[in-house]
Structure prediction request, 478 residues.
Amino acid sequence: MSHKVLICRCEDVTLGELDEAIEKGHDDLESVKRYTGFGTGWCQGKQCVGLVARLLVERGGQVPQLPITPRPPFHPVPLAHLAGLLDEEGSA
Amino acid sequence: MSMRPLPEDARCVVIGAGIMGLAVAYNLARFGVDRIVVVDAGYLCGGASGRNGGGVRAQWSSATNIRLMQRSIEICDAFATKMRINVWFRKSGYLFLATSEERAKQLGDSTDLQREHGLPTRMLDASDVRKLAPELDTSRVIAASYNEDDGVVFPWPFVWGYARECARLGIDIHTHTRVTELETQGGRITGVVTERGRIKTPKVICAAGAWSPEITRTAGVSLPSHPHRHEICATEPLKPFLRPFVGDLGTGLYFSQSMRGEIVGGISNAAVPAGLDSKSSLRFLALYARSLTRALPILGSVRVLRQWSGCYDITPDGNPLVGPVDEMEGLILTSGFMGHGFMMAPIMGELLARHLLFDEERELFERWNLRRYAEGNLLSETMILG
Prediction:
């Protein structure tokens, strides 16, 4: 059953994968992110980090003091927009 | 990785549970050394081992680096089977582009040297490059070098694989255990003080990457290396289309398509001041996006999902600091890898263990010893990327 429950919808991470990560010793939030890949997709954790933190603590994992490190950009941004931010000399 | 108590003493303490520290510890244990403890300030993959672009290549400009990376790639090839973990190793070649005559000549010289060492590296012209990667804009490309045996890995499973095998061999790994001081007495190491307690030990292997200078400083050992922040980013995933890892030594631009489909890459940004720093900047995204969309114009509408940074451990001569430190008995370095420590670690772990235990590879460890700075025997390497 736990392999049918999605806890990160962008990356299709299941509850079973969280259990497996904790069992293998990846029991802090940043390590769970790396081992399962949760929070690394389109939303960058905005939808799932609260849920995963709660599930981790319920399962005896380390209590997170912070969310996973936020990774810019806030929303996905096309490369062409970013490429236009600098002039030829390279100053912004 | 939970908070077990620290042991009171150890035969050897490795500082840094990145791929370098774990590879050294694993090889020492494999050759029979017991009571090894590995400590790390953060979580597994929290340092440069978890933040790099995953490139693994034997295209270098010095015979030493070519030889070592040939062997490191062999270890990567066998890693999944031997360590029972999928590392997503994709051997799809490394393509170095030259957009100036000077760079073209350097690539040509390096290619000659690599071929002398048995590598299949070959020089390409712009039309060959288009055959290999039709989406690349080659209008500024004068020449390129290509080695089909180079490739890309997913870095994290290497760390997990080594950590699991280390644990199986009885190595005690303590993450979230920051080292505050190396304890010394009369010019020799006597222990390691951490935020979680002290471990008595006669031997410390410092594999702390960019944090190495501040750790050795607590024992009065000054390293010539310094930390330098480098940034990297990933786009949304795309259907696989780009086979080789592409690098341009002129701008420091590099990128590849990961097995997840994302375009992952970075670029040199000399304006970043030296120092331990993990911030991300908009300036990096702008620099990278401008160069990347020039090299691969079809990516313009592709979106960047996330950016992050890590620290290179930069040495003045572009070569690492490895082996015992003359003025501090029991202190051994394996640092200063210029952002290429990940790919070097599988072979360095084995060779450093063999050197410490069986006195093998004397010439290599003499060449890369810290004492070259006191003696003035500096080295060179022109194929440093990013």
Observations:
- The interface with chain B takes residues 25-28, 30-31, 34-35, 40-42, 44, 69, 71-73, 76-83, 85-86, 90, 92 of chain A (CB under 8 Å).
